[in-house]
Amino acid sequence: MDINIFDGPIKTSNAQRDHILARVGAAAARLEDASGTIDVRMIDLNGPKGGVDKRCSIVLTPPGLATIRVEEQASDYYAAIDAASATLKRVVAKALEKTKSNGPR
């Protein structure tokens, strides 16, 4: 899986990029043999105002499955990445279980 990171006007640090690659890669590990893309978007909704405004959106396009989109917000980037990755892991597991019981599309 190819992981693409889009950070817009707020540039992510190397540590944040490494954290994204590790967490999102682990969340999609069950699909590691599949070819597909994962787009991760980091957004600061309020800019310098602060608050629970850091958003991590993940769009996973695996072959043979429907596109999966998850989005989480938190007070800092690391928490948003962790929450979105955890949600992605649950959604991928559910999609694979559904595919196993119903067959591929």
Provide the descriptors you would attach to this structure in a database record.
Double Stranded RNA Binding Domain, elongated, 105 residues
Q: Could you please describe the fold and organization of this structure?
A:
The chain is of the alpha+beta class and 105 residues long. The chain has helices spanning 14-27, 77-102, and strands spanning 2-6, 37-44, 54-61, 68-74. The protein has 2 helices and 4 strands. Helix 1 (14-27) packs parallel to helix 2 (77-102). The mean pLDDT is 86.
Query: What CATH architecture label applies?
Result: 2-Layer Sandwich
Query: Can you tell me the CATH superfamily?
Result: Ribosome hibernation promotion factor-like
Biggest pleated sheet? 4 strands, mixed
As a percent range, the share of helical residues equals 25-40%
* CATH class membership: Alpha Beta
Elements, N to C (H/E) = EHEEEH
The total count of strands amounts to 4
What fold name goes in the CATH topology slot? Answer: Double Stranded RNA Binding Domain
Strand order of the largest sheet: 1-2-3-4
Mean pLDDT: 86
Count of helical regions? 2
Compute the CA-based radius of gyration: 14 Å
The best one-word shape is elongated
Class from secondary-structure proportions: alpha+beta
